[in-house]
Amino acid sequence: MSGALPSEALASPLSGRGVLRIAGEEARSFLQNLVTNNVEKAGPAEAVYSALLTPQGKFLFDFFIVEEPGGGGALLLDCDGARAGDLAKRLGMYKLRAKVTIEDMSEALGVVAFWHEDGSPMAEGPGFADPRLPGMGRRAILPKGEIESAIKAADATIASEDAWHRLRIGLGIGDAAKDFEPDRTFPLEVNFDELNGIDFHKGCYIGQEVTSRTKRRGSVRKRLLPVHVEGDMPVPGTPIKGGAREVGTLLSTDAETERALALIRLDLVRASVLEAETAEIRPEIPVWLPALAAEGDDSDDADGE
């Protein structure tokens, strides 16, 4: 008996994404010394998810790194489009005498997300598999004039960006533009360690000492989690309370599915009643996140807030 056929393939051009091109003979070593993941693993059809942190280990930027097709060795960074210029400027601060060039290609190149409607993995297709979770499908960096034809060639149906955000919220995946606060959020709080965004064995990078120590001590006090919302959907940024205590913040929301993402204190995640304005908030632990009991104590985190 043959297996079930995969569900319909959907595709959405992601208008909020930008693309940087890092070229030159030292492009890989330049990034390798700065970012949280192992750049050596990036290829034309294989991306790594990574971040640039502050020296204090706080989040600044996240991006997907993939090798530009054609064999020239340049690297493309799929990043938050609204902050692509800021990322280029920050990388330029570390350039010094490195033999690299940094170019913002956001006007010419766009990013498209491809996924299956039922959330099943998409092993083949355009671009590269999203390295965070199989259910997130694939991504492709393409000349903007070729996006429509690429979607047709993939036999995919164009879906709205809201549909793609609905997918990621349902899976518990944050979006830096909506869910991470630069220079305040720690990467483990937003699950970089569980979403293949950090290589703890690659060697030095900016913010490594704090990140490694936090992981080793198990001292993460908050996590970004999916939640079910019963009642009127509050706006993003609404505080979540457990009785009189503020325990977290509501972030990305999807009123259609009554789901959202929230950054919640782990010691209170299983409180009997959590509320945001008049809505009841029920946190969920996604299957890809390990048991959180060890992280749910109320001890002070020497590396965090």
Please characterize this protein's 3D structure.
This protein is an alpha+beta fold and 305 residues long. The protein has two domains: 9-160, Gyrase A, domain 2 (2-Layer Sandwich), CATH 3.30.1360; 218-295, Elongation Factor Tu (Ef-tu), domain 3 (Beta Barrel). 16% of the residues lie in helices and 30% in strands. The chain contains six helices and 16 strands. It has helices spanning 27-32, 84-93, 147-153, 161-171, 176-179, 208-217, and strands at 9-13, 17-23, 48-53, 59-67, 75-80, 101-104, 109-116, 128-129, 138-143, 157-158, 222-230, 239-242, 245-254, 259-265, 274-276, 279-283. A six-stranded antiparallel sheet has the order 12-13-14-11-16-15. The protein has a five-stranded mixed sheet with strand order 8-9-7-1-10, sandwiched between helices. A five-stranded antiparallel sheet has the order 3-4-5-2-6, with helices on one face. Strand 13 and strand 14 (259-265) form a beta hairpin. The longest helix has 11 residues, at 161-171. Residues 293-305 have low confidence and may be disordered.
What oligomerization state is this entry in?
single chain
Give the biggest beta sheet: 6 strands, antiparallel
| SSE run | EEHEEEHEEEEHEHHHEEEEEE
- Structural class call reads alpha+beta
Low-confidence stretches: 293-305
Distance between the termini: 55 Å
The number of distinct structural domains comes to 2
Count of strand segments: 16
Q: Portion of residues in helices?
A: 10-25%
Strand content: 25-35%
Overall residue-averaged pLDDT value: 92
CATH fold-level topology of the largest domain:
Gyrase A, domain 2
Rg, rounded, reads 20 Å
- Name the overall outline: globular
Give the C-level CATH assignment of the largest domain.
Alpha Beta
State the helix count.
6
